[in-house]
């Protein structure tokens, strides 16, 4: 079981006093370096995990906000309309960026990012858009009570909604075409 850096520092300082009085290659100095590297590695991994989950968290937050005023489960047409609204949420900003750009100038990074996200989400909608199953009443009310945490999504049922209106059960967290 890895021990956190501050625990190693605390143990060494209790044992010998100041941690800066260590020899460069002593056992305690190596323990401190190992613990520091371990903390760096764990924090990098945690930030990468959060970054990978962020698009899905943003998606669920959009649906969470959209269903706050809804009391009945949604129909398939309502789901399709809601997904279309989600995909086109940044079209106004995209058109504004395109209009502000002078003729012959390359697009800005923000404009490229918005276009890329739009294309990715449209492609996902054709192959199966991952979302909560809002056609069931218990999932709808659970999403309304969602606390905003990734771990709180494990109790919800998810589905893949295709552009033609077909639905397929899916799993949490999203994996490929599950």
UniProtKB/TrEMBL annotation:
Gene3D superfamilies: Translation machinery-associated protein 16-like. Belongs to the TMA16 family. Residues 17-29 have a biased composition (Basic and acidic residues). Transmembrane segments: none annotated. This is Translation machinery-associated protein 16. Pfam families: Tma16 (PF11176). One of its GO terms (cellular component) is nucleus. Residues 1-41 are annotated as: Disordered. It comes from the Eukaryota. It comes from Penicillium chermesinum. Residues 7-16 have a biased composition (Basic residues).
């Amino acid at each position: 079981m890895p021990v956190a850096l501050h625990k190693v520092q605390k143990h060494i300082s209790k044992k010998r006093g100041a941690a800066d009085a260590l020899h460069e290659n002593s056992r305690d100095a190596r323990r401190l370096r190992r613990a520091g590297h371990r903390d760096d590695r764990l924090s990098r991994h945690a930030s990468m995990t959060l970054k990978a989950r962020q698009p899905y968290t943003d998606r669920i937050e959009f649906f969470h906000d959209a269903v706050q005023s809804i009391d009945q489960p949604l129909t398939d047409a309502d789901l399709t309309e809601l997904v279309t609204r989600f995909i086109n949420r940044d079209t106004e900003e995209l058109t504004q960026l395109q209009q502000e750009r002078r003729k012959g100038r390359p697009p800005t990074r923000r404009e490229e990012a918005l276009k890329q996200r739009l294309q990715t989400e449209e492609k996902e909608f054709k192959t199966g858009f991952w979302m909560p199953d809002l056609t069931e009443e218990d999932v709808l009310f659970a999403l309304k009570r969602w606390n905003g945490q990734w771990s709180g999504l494990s109790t919800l049922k998810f589905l893949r909604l295709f552009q033609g209106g077909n639905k397929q059960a899916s799993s949490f967290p999203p994996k490929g075409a599950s």
